[in-house]
Write a structure and sequence with these properties.
The complex is a heterodimer of chains A (about 250) and B (about 300). With about 250 residues, chain A is mainly alpha-helical. Helix content of chain A is about 75%, strand content about 0%. Chain B is about 40% helix and about 30% strand. Chain B is globular, with a radius of gyration of 22 Å. The chains are: A mainly alpha (about 250), B alpha/beta (about 300). The interface of A and B includes residues 13, 17, 85, 96 and 246 of A.
Chain lengths: ~250, ~300
Amino acid sequence: MTAAVDSTPAVSQAPAPVPSAASRIWGVVRIQYLNRYTFVGIPLIILAAAVVVSIAIYAMIGADSPMYGGAVQAPLWYFVGAGVQAMGLTFPFAQALTATRREFFLGTALAALLAASGLSLVVVLLGYLEQATNGYGINGYISRLPWLWEQGGAVAGLLYLSFTLLVFFVGFWMATLYRRGGALVVTLAAIGLGVLVVGTLFVITRFELWGDVVRVFAEAGPLGVTGVLCVLVALAALAGWLTLRRSTP
Amino acid sequence: MTAVIDVAHLTKTFKDVTAVDDLTLQVEENSITGLLGRNGSGKTTTMSILTAQDFPTTGTVRVFGEDPLENARVLSRLCFVRESQKYPDDFTAGHALRAAAMFFPRWDEAFARTLVADLRLPLTTRIKKLSRGQLSAVGVVIGLASRAEITFFDEPYLGLDAVARSLFYERLLQDYADHPRTIILSSHLIDEIADLIENVLLIDDGRLLLHESTDALRGRAVTLTGDAETVSHVIGTREILHRESLGRVASVTVMGTLTAAEADEAHRLGLEHSPVPLQQLIVRLSQRDQRSARSATQTTEKAAS
């Protein structure tokens, strides 16, 4: 009879299983929400303040015909800052946590999509509230604007969502450019975008196309404009990703 | 032994600065390596490239046999908190540790709690408001509690007081014994980590000067102190790394060891011979390298003129 040979257990630990890509991307989303002020608290505070101030102004005016204001866009612009922060500060930390650039980009885009969707939903609910209360009882409207709601609350929400995302990705891209090339590159990019906008305005004015432009927007309706915005969102996101691919923390 | 890090002819240039210059090295699994060098010698850049936070200009990097770039399979087994680590705005140390717990598959929460208590790290203060030492402590806790298979510590002692520093070294050794892994510790406080590191990786100006086990390195030089003439007699033709003299007494550091007979003779002649502290040895060796580099340039210049 031969003595049984004990198999010696390996001293070193077996490598831990690699977490799935989905769980690592979701990890980035959770990091973006660990501090809830950035994506949830601050936009809601800005929105609440905009609503309160608008109602106060409407109450002071006290007109009989409906009053419309654009204060609802205030929290939307904050998403430039959210985009800048997500890139400028969270990216280096995500790198320390070994997230790849791809995981960081997808997780951050998903986090922004969730935040912008939530904000858009609140704005749409506010619109229905205005509808139900005849403009807070004083005939004043912030969210429920005539052209925007032409095709219903859902379309108005989508338009709001796509615009918020566009603003976010432009901020994200600018912050990524800053990381890659410093203030000069950002300035040049901003000037480039500015020239593009002014150039377009010049061409429209020079060839007296304003009537056509207004007609195009009127015909496209909120849904058509949302479609155009979605294309711009995709372009800004793509620009952000291409710049991020070679970024270092 | 298997090499978990394999770097071949790695070069990294930033505009007109060469941060890493033709670096070739391997790091064995389950070892503690000191990555030593002066400020700006390329330590952080090298670690950034190994962890795919930065890109090589030329050369290849293999970690666990694979290119780490955008490779979650490799990256999920690493941990690198840099000395100047940035955190999301308004994050507290508590937020940072919760995020780390989500990402590092081997994270040990109980260990993290103990370290936080030991290092007296406030968890609810915003990181922006932490002192330099507390900021380092965040990195130390993440680095240790992640138990990553390769963990990089980038000058983790900055701003830590003496108690916290020795606590860090103690915990590191203890946890390394319980959970063997590969640790790379960048530092310029060489003597403080001399007893901790098994291997020395010395880089200067982006180039590898030395890659040796600490024990072998210690045996490479010896210091003799005593009567100047007697010292000269005993060292013979050995290469002198450093000489200090005060009156007739000289203290000379030379390359090589003394044979038993020589040691006896030195003792008989009233000389004191002592091992060279690691830090001194490394300083002398880097100075020697600079001297030889200088004389090489001078020779070429002379030849050219």
